[in-house]
Amino acid sequence: MGIFSTPVLLAVTALFLPSTATASVGECDFVIVGGGTSGLVLANRLSAIPGVTVGVIEPGGDVRGNPNVTKPTSWLKNMGTGIDWQYTTSPQSAPAPPQQNGSGSGAGGGRVLTYHAGKAVGGTSTINGMTYIRADRAEIDAWETLGNVGWNWSTLDRYYVKSENFTPPTLQQQSAGGASYDPAYHGVGGNVKVGFLPELDLSGFEKPAETTWATMGYGKIQDVNGGSVRGFDVWPMTVDVGEDTRWDAGRGYYWSVAARPNLSLIKGTATRVLWLNGSCGEEVVASGVEYLDAEGNIQVLGVKREVMLSAGSLRTPLILEASGVGNPRALRALGVEVKVDLPGVGENLQDQPNLDLIYSGTVNVTGYPPYATFATAQDLFGSNASSIAAVTCMSIPQWAKQIEQNGGLNASAVEKVLRVQHDLIFGQNVTVAEMLTTASGSYLVSAFWALLPFSRGGVHLRSTATRDMNDPIIDPGFFTVDFDMETQTAIGRLAQQFWETEPVRDLVTGSISPGDAVLPQNATDEQWASYIGSSFTPNYHPIGTAAMMSRDLGGVVGPELRVYGTRNVRVVDASVIPLQVSGHLTATLYAIAERASEMILDSLVS
């Protein structure tokens, strides 16, 4: 069973045995909105209790027969297909070079960006890059600082390990591919298979990459999942090593238990939570979830106990707003009756701007090289770091006022959150930059992004028309704080420096993209800003739109992931993560969902 003790299982099972074990699509004990990375963890754990009926509402289908999903190295072919939501953003503002750590108009040249997100049983875990990297320890500890008692690294680490089923790298992968690990950081009995791809590159490219980064001061990390990511690493992935198959949430948590009689997967698109006419004190009580079935008809799935929203950072806020939970001013403009005054819904959107540098080389890389290097602000700014820390600290009130003007959050609350983030960056020296070093054939590539941007955006319902649930207003607000442009430029220069440093420099024959004419060596801040503004994409790591923080800070859910002002609605997905992490979301989402499942089952016997 994984994370649950035998006494807890026996107690919860006994509690529900008198009821029927057959789930009715008319009413369930638990209704889960979204059969993705987090939702399927909940479905698996809750339906393990025979008398508990669980319904999962998911618009996507079974992709186990899709070779672009199952073959790990084909994952990019899924973008832009029928299993990708392909959300689009509002036009992003014109590019601006870094100022003296002030706030600006953003960068993007009016471009409309596309957000990729999985539309399938398994959600985005069916189309993502499968990277399994957790976070820096202090970043998770900061969740507790923001009002979430019990959410810290030492607590969450248990669920990282419990969710994992790790396969160590082969001796050849270690000697020729650079793969390494520390068994103390890994689990072997969980549902999420993790390991190093059989296609891991063994051509010899890893060694000069590792040596070059070490020359620049970024030594090799034995295991990137131990709570400290600074340095160079060869990362593991969510794959079944033996079968050479992507291991998504469907394979890990759903398909093996799909035949449980108390578990129903309902093909449909959730639109809103319905409420009982009365309320329990000041808390509203959910009675069910409205959804569109496969034929486009409105249906209702009733709930006896709890509704759990696991639709993701770009969709969960829309469901809350359509249900009357959000900023009263925005809800009234939509013609929605206000049930809970919660201005943080849809706000606090944070993502990371992604760019790349492409070179031609003398190599012939036929394998898959998953190499990442993480750097801190001290690394990026060197002797200027302390003065930059002081200037940015003084700029926080200005940034907070700008974020207040752009959205519905209170400036004083935003300021407190930004100060926690500032302390992580400059006080606790967490990593703020990630640079991928990769290659294919004779092409050499760096992809790079700022990990903890100060800019904030939002996602909101366009109208109450059901079709608009698939066409939200998304404004990530990239580079609305100009310090983020300064950080992104510094990261780009570091990535560029890598390819100009021995021994990797001997492998490079020329610059392909953006090319020396656009971005020469020693490019100016203006040249970098122009390139960044015209070329960046989202990193597809949106978080924070139903943030787990104290309500006075603009939080949407509390430490038990229950939506403030509701009796029986929780959110369990990336939208609850209050600040970005130095890693990729998958590992942390599995851990959050495992902990949420345990919380819910514990509450049944308390």
UniProtKB/TrEMBL annotation:
Residues of the signal peptide: 1-23
SUPFAM superfamilies membership: FAD-linked reductases, C-terminal domain, FAD/NAD(P)-binding domain
Every Glucose-methanol-choline oxidoreductase N-terminal domain range: 118-141, 312-326
Region ranges (Disordered): 86-109
GO terms, molecular function: flavin adenine dinucleotide binding; oxidoreductase activity, acting on CH-OH group of donors
Coiled coil (residue ranges): none
Keyword Oxidoreductase on entry: yes
Domain of life: Eukaryota
The name this protein goes by in its record: Glucose oxidase
Biological source species: Diplogelasinospora grovesii
Phylogenetic classification of the source organism: Eukaryota, Fungi, Dikarya, Ascomycota, Pezizomycotina
